[in-house]
Amino acid sequence: MIEQGNLPTQRVNISTQKMLGGIGYILILLGWMPRIGIFLSLVGFVLWLISMYQLSNILRKPSIFQKALIGFILSIAGIVIAFAFGLMALIPLLVSPKDEAGAILGLGLGVVFAIVVAYATLVVSFYFYKEAYKILAQATAHNLFKIGGLLLFIGAITTILFGLGLLLIIVGEIILAVAFFTAPNEVEVQGT
Prior knowledge:
- With 192 residues, this protein is mainly α.
- Helix content is 76%, strand content 8%.
- The chain has one domain (2-190).
- The protein is built from 6 helices and 3 strands; from the N terminus they run E-E-H-H-H-H-H-H-E.
- It has a 3-stranded antiparallel β-sheet with strand order 1-2-3, with no helix packed on it.
- Helix 1 packs antiparallel against helix 6, helix 3 (62-95) runs antiparallel to helix 4 and helix 5 (144-157) runs antiparallel to helix 6 (164-182).
- The protein is elongated and about 75 Å long.
């Protein structure tokens, strides 16, 4: 244990947690592949959440996991809500196929509303991811976490610009995978 100012510090090993996060992000990146991508993404998100939970405990920064979990839950909720509105938009077509104009208008409004809900929750959830990575970057003194989180957030905001945002999200995910693998194995934690 080392004294730094008035607070004692202790060196802790995070090699397992950073490996879990790095592998999780590689699987999340492979999730962009057709067919097997969804399964790989799910496994990647589970590994990433475990990594974030353990890192927040080891580094004594519970807000890392809290913000990551809020972002994850908002992402899932946004997808489910958008999917539900998209399905509900199909109901007028099935119920009254004779009123084509009304059914098409209902379908169009439902799809627009689903896209707006998905976009809004994507931006808010990625804001929480950015904040979690900002805290993680400070705790590990590894700035790549902050850069990757910021790129995810900017990508989420600019997704509406014809896919430019998706490219930024992918670059952010690559940077975060690199950040997990290149983070120091041992960091100093303040407190007892």
